[in-house]
Predict the 3D structure of the following.
Amino acid sequence: MTQKKSLFFFLSLTLLLSVPLQVASAQNLESLSDYSIKLAISPSHIEEGPSKHSIGYLYVLSKSGIPITSSSDVLISLISDDPLIASVPENIILKANEEYTSFDVTTGVLTGNTVITATLNSKTTFQEIHVGNAETHLPDDLILELNLPTDEMHVNSKMPFSVYLRNSDGYVIRAPFDINVNLEYEKSLAIPNSDVLTIKKGEYYAWGTLETHGKVGNTFLRALQSESNLDTAKSVKISSTLPTSLKIDVFPKLITAEVEKKLDIFVSVVDSDGNPTITPQDIELNFFSNDQYSVGDKLDDTMKEVKTVIKKGQFGYYLRQDLNLSNLLANNIVIGVSAEGYGIATDTFSTVGKSINIDNDKITEKDIQLFIPARMPSNATSIVTYQISTIENDDDDVDEEGNPITAETTDITDENKIILSIDDLGDGEFYPIQTNENYYADGYVKKLDVISGDNKLITVKNIGKIEVGNSFGTAIISSGQKVALF
């Protein structure tokens, strides 16, 4: 048998969180770093001569490119490189809970190009515009343009858009007469404020507003100019921050097949994009399993004894389930959850046959595994499950007669084989080990600690403990207003 090397072990768990946080409501832009601003001046080619044009819009976009709202009024600075060509207000305000703000572009006494720049905190965006056009008739190489600031919207929101004509060189054409542009769309998801937009004589563009309903999905907006036989279309993805489905996490993934075992179950709600969100109403949960005898019956008993509900204003429900697994040695045991209107979600765990005590001579290396729900919103509560494990080393495997087992004499290709002992694992895989005493975060000898790498991002509310004869414990964490988007 391979000589075992003694190893000093002190259980200390540091939680350096990289949990992506999502925000389901108006943002505090002072604490949000991963966003951008978008300047939309459309059309970018406008007529010469002193005049005021209501063609400027500005949005704040999330990392995904979706317009987001601010929880308070924010001041945005504007500047033109050459105010004699075109000038803009020195400052504009994006009001709280509004998706965009608009501003006027005032043409001056000169023609030519100038750059308009917008600045919000450290974020900057700019766009070049051209003033002056001598065209007095429609060219042959006309192209109809439909301009949307973004191709993603939330439910129950509005977004301005414009239509205009340009030639193949990119120059926007002034209408020599009124030009009607018809709009086609899918009524069930979003509608424009008018079915027909008119580019007035002497103008370069016409503006409309697209408004979404309460449904999520993909829709389209199509613009047609019949006389010139021109058409163009854009697709729009409509998402929602309201919960649309469930997600379940079962931790840890390996536990011993013994009596009086526990399992962590965390159920959360996600929106149409799969991001965690907050529920505006109570959601009653129903649990089930593919193993009714050992797991399903226990879940049924729990649902009779306690209310398994994600409460209004929360994003998840935590259940520590007591189980008797003495007759259940299997892989991929399913635990599922369902809720009316939110569908079904499932996760799995597996059991191992032989229990290993933390002082077992076969243990040459110990480690800690962390199990954390992948994402959580700001100002929410979640869990961290931590498990003491040993790491399989194929070099120390022996058969029943004490002879070393080599890689050639063992079958490690069967992913579905039952795990009777640590020797059934592949090299480097983790196997749970049981404590021979309680591991607490306090007391005379501190054997357990859970630390957040950023207390403004995540706070550890309750470190928890590992009870004697078990391999894992559970900490309760909460997120702050500060967010991190990855």
